[in-house]
Design a protein that fits this description.
By secondary structure, the protein is an alpha+beta fold. The protein has helices spanning 3-22, 27-56, 88-93, 169-172; strands spanning 70-75, 78-85, 105-115, 118-119, 128-133, 139-145, 153-154, 159-166, 181-182. The chain has 4 helices and 9 strands; from the N terminus they run H-H-E-E-H-E-E-E-E-E-E-H-E. The protein is elongated and about 90 Å long.
């Protein structure tokens, strides 16, 4: 082979390699590339849509639960209207997020079995009094609780009920340990 043939052969060979690199991809490769581009576009559109919907959702403060069933209780000549928190979720939320509560209203926490239950005031905006009450409706002890406090206030013996009222409600009316409250037969 002479030099000219070698050069031409080399050029032809290089030209053939360059043409192979530029020639159209096989159909399967084209389909895969198209799929990848479409998938990327869908992922970006989804991410953008989620981001925009989250940004458009208004941030709202947690809401107090005000739609629980109510029961009427009595303390001497005083009538109490109490919302009844029976489920663990209802008891967990309790009076959280309330900005105010009428004078003779409260919340009665009903438990399945007597125990020395403890309460705290996380996310509770108003100061409260908690009366720990046994199965017979007798007050075991009363705890005064500051708004937002994480201090635990516990029953001094096993109780089945806890009645939360505005701060000093029991004290102002002369009620404390040993006071008999009425209406608990309906709360069971």
């Amino acid at each position: 082979m002479d030099n000219k043939a070698r050069k031409t052969g080399a050029i032809d060979h290089t030209l053939a390699l360059n043409q192979a690199a530029v020639s159209p991809a096989p159909p399967l490769m084209t389909e895969i590339a198209d799929f990848m581009h479409k998938s990327q576009a869908i992922l970006w559109a989804t991410a953008l849509s989620i981001t925009l919907s989250v940004m458009a959702t208004p941030v709202t403060a947690a809401q107090p639960q005000t739609d629980l069933p109510r029961i009427e209780l009595t303390a001497g000549m005083h009538r109490i209207v109490a919302q009844v928190a029976r489920t663990s979720k209802q008891r967990e939320i309790g009076l959280m997020y309330r900005a105010e509560m009428p004078a003779n209203e409260g919340m009665l926490f009903v438990f399945e079995a007597p125990d020395a239950y403890c309460f705290w005031m996380k996310n509770t905006l108003i100061p409260l009094s908690a009366a720990f009450i046994d199965d017979n409706g007798t007050v075991v002890n009363v705890a005064e609780m500051a708004a937002g406090s994480l201090d635990q206030h516990c029953a001094k013996q096993p109780v089945r009920f806890v009645l939360e009222m505005n701060k000093q409600w029991f004290e102002k009316r002369g009620f404390g340990a040993g006071t008999q409250l009425g209406g608990f037969t309906r709360a069971r």
